[in-house]
Amino acid sequence: MKLRVQYTAQLRTAVGRTEDEVELPEGSSLAALVEHLAAQLDDAAAGHLVGPGGGIRPSLLVVVNEAAAPAHAVATTSLQDGDVVLLLPPIAGG
Amino acid sequence: MTPAELTPDELKRYQWQLWVRDFGQEGQRRLKGASVLVSRIGGVGGSAALHLAAAGVGRLVIAHAGNLRLDDLNRQTLMTTDWIGKPRVESAERRLRELNPLVEIETVAENVSEANAAGLVARADLVVAAAPLFTERLLLNREAVRQRKPLVDCAMYDLEGRVMVVLPGQTACLACLYPEPPANWKREFPVFSAVSSTVGSLAAMEAIKLIARIGSASGGLAGRLLTFDLRDMSFRTIAIARRADCSVCGDLRS
User: What is the sign of the dihedral through the CA atoms of B47, B50, B54 and B60?
Assistant: First the structure.
């Protein structure tokens, strides 16, 4: 299945582009997508997605088709072909 | 508290906003009777404070440490070039008084810390959080939730902005969104004043709506994160659910 992944804020700066198209096996979970991205991207970008231990950063807001994915359900949320996944790392510019 | 009566001078000064639907003299009296804490009055918070002063909030508590630097001036619109090297809060206070001498301004030349957070929040009815550090924002959130006061969190990066309103016990709080201080945030961020001021304006409007009771709670950003990108002028709001395991508001009932 094909997914559209959109980057924002410091993650977008680190990745160097606004979005990617990602191909993953049918039924892959949101966690699998984030792990896939972290493996593909360089360390600076991956650091916005996963912590040193490899787990998804608790403060990364993941939005699938305009709805926030609950933090506790990232591992069990299955994605579908055509889903748009927006990744929002925290910002605090004042 | 009974909102204060409006003087002839106030009726004239605020005439054009008294025409706003659902606002009127009752809304203006509520603003007059209210106090707002704005934590840091830089690009975002300075804009919020300016609009709250123009609207006639009775008392503003502005907190920000340090002296003005030349490289603050591309975005900190309450500051003036002649004040470089002097305390930021003094410049901000002067500008706010010049705009609206009817507003009481309290200055605190400190940033939010564990030592002063509870006391600062206690001095106001509503909190606007606009610091460039998550530790300060999360401290304000914790104290606002403890003291059951609404909090407007507003932030920006590059051409992006975000605003969320926290109603303690009713909506997600900032710690539901950010359960721990984000490790990767770098304080140095790209900023145009046009972006930071937009975020501050939106935050001020949310504060005015909450105080004056304009519209319904669901019509604003209570429990919803507004995120926008001025590069492509995209605006979206995302509902943020409360976390049952939130260390700050998890046990709180409405």
Answer: positive
* B112-152 confidence digits (pLDDT tens): 999 999 999 999 999 999 999 999 999 999 999 999 999 99
- Listed in sequence order, the residues at least 6 apart from B178 whose beta carbon sits closer than 8 Å to its beta carbon are A58, A59, A90, B134, B138
Q: Which CATH architecture has domain B8-239?
A: 3-Layer(aba) Sandwich (3.40)
| Contact between B227 and A68 using a beta-carbon 8 Å cutoff | no
* CA of A67 vs chain B CAs: smallest distance (Å): 6
pLDDT over threshold 80, residue A47: yes
Contact A61 B158 (CB under 8 A): no
Residues of A in CB contact (< 8 Å) with B are 8-10, 13, 47-48, 51, 57-59, 61, 63, 66-68, 70-72, 88-94
Kindly state whether residue A93 falls inside one of the protein's structural domains: no
Which DSSP category does B222 fall into?
B
Sheet hosting strand A19-23, strand order edge to edge: A19-23, A2-7, A84-88, A61-64, A67-68
- Whole-angstrom Cα distance, residue B60 to residue B50? 10
Assess if residue A78 is contained within a domain.
yes
Cα B80 to Cα B57: distance, rounded to the nearest angstrom: 23
List, for residues B25-70, the tens digit of each pLDDT value: 999 999 999 999 999 999 999 999 999 999 999 999 999 999 999 9
